[in-house]
Amino acid sequence: MKRVFVFCIGGTGLRVMKSITMLLAAGMDAKGFTIVPVPIDPHLDLEEKRNLQTLLGEYENIHNSCILSDGQRLNPPKGFFETNITDLKNLNGQQNDISEPIAEKRSFGQYLNIGKLNSDDINNFLVQTLFSQANLDNDLSVGFKGSPNVGTVVLGEMIKGADWFQAFCNAFQQGDRIFIISSIFGGTGASGFPLLEKKVRNYTDNTTIKDAMMGAISVLPYYALEDPGITDSDIDSANFLTKTKSALAYYENSIESDYHYYVGEQGMKVTYQNDEKKQEDKAHFVELVAASALFDFLSKSDDRPDTRQTMSRSIKEDVESLSLSSLGDAYKDIVKALADMTILSRIVSFLPEETQFPLTKNRGYDSDFYNDKSFVALKNFLERFAVWYEELASNKRGFAPLNIANVKVRKAPLSNWIKDFSLDAKDESYYLLEMIRASNKDSNPSNTIKFRSFLDYAYKAINKYTGKIM
Question: What whole-number distance in Å separates Cα of residue 300 and Cα of residue 317?
Answer without folding.
Answer: 28
